[in-house]
Amino acid sequence: SFHGSKHSLAATYYHSKMTSIIKRVGFPIEFVNSGEIAFDGVELEGKLLLGDRFTMAGSFTYQTNEDELGLESTTYTPNTMAKLRATYNVRPGFTIAAADSYFGEPAQVSDFAPGTPQVNPEATAYHLVTLNATLDINELAGKKGGPSWKVELFVDNRWYASALTPPYSFVVDAASFAPGQHKLRAYAYDTSNNLISVTPPAG
């Protein structure tokens, strides 16, 4: 691994072996404890600070597995996974982040159990895109050790979620919205029902 003042990079190789695992047997499927499986993989992780407010971080993982019969990729865990995350500190107490997580195509039942009836659609690779906003309400309100808050997040003037405990973090599923700009606004209420609001940049 390497760590600098504004960047870091790490590589990890792993090997693990599991015995008496839970296996699917027959059809209708029954679950039994038997056999073993070995995993080998490598993971790369990196982080880069761009100025005082912007951070990029990412990871890439590739793994293979083999059971006691020599069959490969017999789990439903994808062999390839990757994640890229961008974080921006809008101002003290308010951070937004966007992340794209990629999950490769997992093994299909027909790959290691030929003849098994196909009931569900085959699993495919996919991306999971999320938007996260973290608010430190006391810092935004200029209060140290202040009261508890209730925070509500609105997307395009529609209520989206509430948070009742620190760090008042929200995850927005960006894939559920049409491409383009959207308006986010957070409303925070203290125990006396005093209100402050924060409007992140459109994105």
Number of strands: 12
Q: If you average the pLDDT, what whole number results?
A: 81
Distance between the termini: 34 Å
Number of helices: 2
Going across the biggest sheet, name each strand in turn: 1-2-3-4-5-6-7-10
Helix content: under 10%
- Determine Rg (CA atoms, Å): 23 Å
Low-confidence stretches: none
Order of helices and strands: EEEEEEHEHEEEEE
Proportion of beta-strand residues: over 45%
Q: Indicate the overall shape.
A: elongated
3D architecture notes:
- By secondary structure, the protein is mostly beta strands.
- The protein contains two helices and twelve strands.
- The chain has an eight-stranded antiparallel beta sheet, with no helix packed on it. A four-stranded antiparallel beta sheet has the order 9-8-11-12, with no helix packed on it.
- The radius of gyration is 23 Å and the shape is elongated.
- It starts with a strand and ends in a 5-residue tail after the last strand.
- The relative contact order is 0.12.
Top keywords for this entry?
about 200 residues, mainly beta, 4-stranded antiparallel beta sheet, 2 helices, about 5% helix
Summarize the helices and strands and which ones pair or pack:
Elements: E1 2-3, E2 7-25, E3 30-50, E4 54-67, E5 80-91, E6 94-103, H1 109-112, E7 126-135, H2 137-140, E8 149-155, E9 158-163, E10 169-173, E11 184-190, E12 195-198
Q: Short description, anyone?
A:
The protein has 203 residues and is mainly β.
